[in-house]
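Re-run with default settings, no changes from the original entry. Doing this only to confirm the output is reproducible before filing.
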Amino acid sequence: MINFTNLKFLLTSLLILVQLKFVFSQDSLPVNYFRSPINSKLIVTSNFGEIRTNHFHTGLDIYTKGRIGENIYAVADGYISRIMVSASGYGKALYVNHPNGYVSVYAHLSRFKKDVEDYIFKYQHDNEEFEINLYPLPNQFKIKKSEIIAKSGNSGRSFGAHLHFEIRETQSEKPINPLLLNFNIEDTIAPKIFSIYMYNFEGENGSEMIIDKKNINGNIIKVFGKIGFGIEAFDFINGRNSATGLYNIDLFVDDSLIFSYTLNKISFFENRYLNIFIDYSERKGTGKKISKCFIEPNNNLSIYEKNKNNGIYDFSDLKTHSVKILAKDVSGNNSSINFNVESDSSFKIKDKKNYHNLKKIYFSKKNFYFT
C-alpha cells in the first residue's frame, strides 16, 4: 500500500533539491578556481565597473611595476580561443577558454608565447596585415594553469604599462567582476563620499542642488516634490592612491530600501547606458562622476536590484524624513551618509545648469529642429 504522506514528503524534498540546484547553478561563481595572472603582489589600479568615457570598465587594470615584459600566467587550464592584434583598443590580447564555462582575457600585451608569436607573425606576413582577430581551433593552443602565455606591455589604447584582465562568461560573453573570485587582493579601505546631489522631477527640464558632505551631516535639508538623489563617491584599494569605481549603492528613506545597484557583471550591449547611469551633464560640464540613485526611463541596465518608484521619492507630505546612502566595496568595506530632509512647499531647487547652451532632446516627446 502506498504511503501518501511519505510520498508527498519525498516529492516535496526532490522539488526543493531541484530548485536549489537551479539557484546555485545560476548564481554560483568559480571562487578560488583561478590563480593570479602575475606572480608578484596583485595590485589593482582600476577596478571593475569604474566609470570611463561612454562605458564601464569591464575588468581589472593590474600593476606590472610600470614595466614592459613582465610574465603573464594562465589563470587556469584551457585553450587559446582568440588572438587579437590592434593599434587601438586592447592592443595585443589573448582569450583563454576554460572548462568551467568562463573565459580569461589578457590585454595590452607586448608579446605572446613563442608558438603563438610564430603563428601570428606568419599570418601577418602571408596576409600583409598588421591588425588581426583570429579564432584558433580548441586543440591548436592548449594551455596549462600557471603557464607563461605572454609578456606585459603597453599596446593598444593604453597610457602606461599594465595588464588589463577580465573574466567573462563563455556563453553570454558578459564580463563578471573578478574581485568576486578571491584573487587575494588586499582591500581594507572603505569608499569615500564627497557630496550628494538632489534632483527635482516636478518640472520638464529638471533641477538640481549640490550638497557638500561637510554641510549635510546633522543638518536638515529642505525639499519638496518628487526627488532623486545622486552621489559623488569613489572606492580605494590598498597599494595605490587612485580612485576606483563603486561596487554597490543602497538608498534608504525612513529605513526603507528604495534603490540599490550592484556591479556583479555587465553586458557589453548595455555599456553605453553609462551615460544615463551618471549625471551626464555634470560630467561634461565639470568632469565630476555622479552616480544617480534613481532609474530614469529608457535606462535598461540590469545592475539594479531593488527599487521603489525607480528610486524617486515624493516628499510632498510636509513631514521630515531620514535619508541614508550606503556605499560598499566587494571586500565588505562601507561608508554611509545620513541626513534629514524636511518637506517644505515653499522650497524650490534651482534650475539645472546648462553647460552646453544647446537645445535639449527629450526622449518622451517629438523633437523638431530647423536649419
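The CA atoms of residues 8 and 34 lie 42 Å apart. The chain has a mean pLDDT of 87.
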